[in-house]
Design goal:
2 helices
């Protein structure tokens, strides 16, 4: 059985939605991992140290 044009369009739309969701999830995951790794470093930097002379 061959897929009709409409079935191919629907399949591509679903595949595109899943790909976009995967990309968005990976961005959130990388941002969260980066924040978790750098949390201690970010607490020791900032304007409080820059104002000291």
């Amino acid at each position: 059985m061959h897929a009709t044009f409409l079935q191919k369009v629907i399949l591509c739309a679903i595949a595109g939605f899943l790909a976009a969701g995967l990309i968005q999830w990976s961005k959130v995951f990388v941002t969260g991992a980066d924040d978790a790794l750098n949390a201690g470093y970010k607490q020791t930097t900032g304007e409080g140290f820059a104002k000291r002379k």
